[in-house]
Design a protein that fits this description.
Strand content: 5-15%
Strand order of the largest sheet: 1-3-2-4-5
Distance between the termini: 54 Å
Largest sheet: 5 strands, mixed
């Protein structure tokens, strides 16, 4: 629905404020619903303006009595799902805790580093798997430089079971260690097919058991792991991390951000073998003391 609203209204507006002055002068139930969904979109991105936008919508509906009645019935239904209790949220939304630490897991360096490279990857993504040797080689190459490499897990919705793996990633990274997390990640990379094509006929419980087996293979306590990934807090933290990634424009894996700016993966890096030449050309000029 929001996509329809964006398609219909976006060509005529540039900001939420302008949306209120560029509405069609003769509203219909269809255009009213489109505008309503567009205002939801504005509220999602700007926050704290839902009541003002709804007031605008009511005034818009009053321009035509038929629209007011017919659209009002639809709005009652749509608004119930569009604005959950406590919306818009100031601070953490109800049921969604603020992260207890900085999101992502350090592969190299500390937040005090001069240069920061962030990778958003999916454990069940073939392209993330192909990039991983280069990412590890970068960590080895810059081990003494002022560079932080931080990995975020971004499960893609069309990689079935990727979310379950991401929950496991978060629990291991937060409750065991980032180093153990990356051990686990490499096992998952090696076993991707077992959680994709080969898992098509598995039940959810069987998938969880398979993931638990991979965690146990790298030394993670199976009992603690099973309880940890079933914990509601772990699930919510995984969701918050995913949502944060979407606010930064992540839509594919792997995605790379250098000092906060999205950068394309250098040519020949995504080959399944380590190739850091393109990356060093990007990173070295940013470092006060490049590695020798």
């Amino acid at each position: 629905g929001v996509g329809v609203a964006g398609t219909y209204v976006r060509p005529f507006v540039h900001t939420c404020k302008e949306a209120r002055t560029h509405m069609p002068t003769t509203p219909t139930p269809y255009t009213t619903i489109c505008v309503f969904l567009w205002l939801i979109r504005c509220t999602d991105t700007r926050g704290g303006e839902s009541s003002h936008h709804l007031f605008t919508l009511v005034a818009y509906c009053r321009m035509n009595w038929f629209t007011s009645i017919s659209s009002g019935l639809v709005l009652c239904v749509v608004s119930a799902s569009a604005f959950p209790p406590g919306y818009p949220c100031v601070g953490p939304c109800p049921g969604y805790p603020l992260p207890s630490r900085r999101l992502g897991y350090p592969l190299l360096g500390t937040p005090a580093a001069d240069v920061r490279l962030e990778i958003f990857g999916d454990n069940l993504c073939a392209y993330t798997k192909a990039s991983w040797p280069t990412i590890k080689a970068l960590a080895d190459h810059y081990h003494s430089a002022s560079l932080e490499i931080r990995v975020h897990w971004f499960p893609l919705p069309y990689h079935h079971n990727a979310y379950f793996v991401a929950v496991a990633d978060h629990w291991i990274g937060s409750n065991v260690s980032p180093a153990k997390l990356f051990e686990f990640a490499e096992v998952i990379f090696a076993q991707q097919d077992s959680l994709l094509q080969e898992a098509q006929n598995l039940t959810e419980a069987e998938v969880h058991a398979r993931i638990a087996g991979y965690a146990e293979s790298v030394g993670v306590d199976a009992t603690l792991f099973t309880a940890g990934v079933a914990n509601r807090t772990t699930d919510l933290v995984t969701r918050v991390a995913w949502k944060l990634a979407t606010t930064r424009g992540v839509f594919e894996t792997p995605s790379f951000y250098l000092n906060g700016f999205r950068v394309a993966e250098p040519a020949k890096a995504n080959t399944g073998t380590a190739n850091i030449t393109g990356w060093t050309a990007l990173i070295d000029p940013l470092l006060a003391t490049p590695p020798t």
